[in-house]
Structures are given as structure tokens and as C-alpha cells.
Amino acid sequence: MCIFTSITIVLFKKDKEATLSSLSRSVLASCSSMKGSHLFLCLFSVLCWLNLMPTAGNRVFHFGHCRVSMSMTEIRLGFTAIKANIQARDPIRTLSILSHPHSLHKVKSSDRCCITHHLFNFYVDKVFKHCKTEDSYINRKISSIANSFLSMKRKLRQCHEQNKCMCGEESTEKFKQILANYEGLNVTSAAMKSLGELDILLDWMEKSQRAEGVNDPPKPGAKEAAGTLHTPVVSRKTMCCATADSY
């Protein structure tokens, strides 16, 4: 009973963080009054529910058939805190890694997943490791952003391995252009410039998502199903509890 109460409240409350806090206390209080197998089942259900709740600040990005969650707000806040410092370290203002000449301009929808996959590999493998500074605060922020990129890289790699992130000729050529821009500079300068241009990548990703929403044709029955968008969430949690019951 406790898990179904949780689902109902979570789906209809607008303030999710306040809901999570008050709901956790309410559900745990209900569980504490139970004994034996009922207590175990209730606590197991709570754990399932918490595991399935999206992480605060995470956003799901759609790249064709590939769906990945990313802590965009956290990354932006971290980058904003160090942007001025990093860009001040860039001695070459006349060149660009990501935006010259139009590296991310007019990427086809079918190529967005592939070039995003390439770019996250690029930042993890070539950029962050060469961006160490004498400032421990800056280094911690860079490390935090790098960890978020590493997580995203792994999710995109899974899509690639499942053939959900196919690479066309255009995406391959555009990434080669970015790589050539990077390799035209010495390693440290190229890495700092790439990090200083991180907002170009983030802005492009968000703009691409808006384009996906506009350009994708509406699915049949989308309007009729508008009132049942939360049904799959209930189903997932029900399945989770069913597993506990079977156990």
C-alpha cells in the first residue's frame, strides 16, 4: 500500500523536491509500524521507488532512438564558475575548436547522436586530462564536469553498441574537422580552448533537442494518450513491487 501511495503523490505534486522529502518521512513512518515480511516488503518497495526516481537536475536527451540522461544544470553551473578563468588562459582568440568553420552548424538529425558520442569521447580522452591548473578550486570544478561527461560517454557508447547511434559521412567529416582544429595547436592550449568553448557544445545540444521536438512528426494517437503519460511510470513501480512480492 505504501508504494502505491508514493506513486500517486509523486505524479501529481508539482514541487518534486518538497514531495520527496515529505513523502520519504511519511512512507518510512508507515513502514515502521509493520512487522516481519510486511516490513521487508514495504522497505523494499521504498528502495525501488527511490531508485526509479530521476536524479534532481537530470534531463533526458533524445538522439533518435538513443535516450540518455544528463545533469545539464550541474554541468552548466560548474562551467559558469570557471568560464572566465579558463578563457583568460586561452592565448589564441582568433581560432576556435568547435565553431570554426561551422563545425556544429546544421548537423542532420540522424547524425546528432554520432557526433555527440564523438565529442564526449573527445572531451574525456583529450581535453580534461590536459586542463590541470594551479588552482585547486578550478581543478575540482573541472573534475566534476569530467565525471559527468564520463557518465554520458558510457551511456552513448551503449547506444552505439546497440546500433542506436549510427555514424554517417557528415558526422564523421565534421568530427575530423574538430579534431584537426584541436591538433593544430599545442596540447595544453588546445585543451584549454576546448574547455573554454564548452558552452558552445552545451548550447548546441539544447538547441538540437528543441529542433528534435519541432521536426519529429507527432506519433499516432499522441493527443488521445496525452492524459495517460504517467501510466508507464506506475507500471514500472508496480513491476518492482511485484518482484518483491514474488521474492
Put the structure in a nutshell:
This protein has helices spanning 2-12, 16-32, 36-52, 72-88, 112-127, 136-161, 169-183, 187-196, 198-215, 231-246; strands spanning 59-63, 66-70.
Please outline the helices and strands.
Blueprint: H1 2-12, H2 16-32, H3 36-52, E1 59-63, E2 66-70, H4 72-88, H5 112-127, H6 136-161, H7 169-183, H8 187-196, H9 198-215, H10 231-246
Helix pairs in contact: 1-2, 1-3, 2-3, 3-10, 4-6, 4-8, 5-6, 5-7
Report on this model:
It contains 10 helices and 2 strands, in the order αααββααααααα. The chain has 247 residues and is mainly alpha-helical. Strands 1-2 form a two-stranded antiparallel sheet. Strand 1 and strand 2 (66-70) form a beta hairpin. Helix 3 packs antiparallel against helix 10 (231-246) and helix 5 runs parallel beside helix 7. The longest helix has 26 residues, at 136-161. The two termini are 17 Å apart.
Alpha-beta content class: mainly alpha
Biggest sheet features: 2 strands, antiparallel
Give the end-to-end Cα distance, rounded to a whole number of Å: 17 Å
Order of helices and strands: HHHEEHHHHHHH
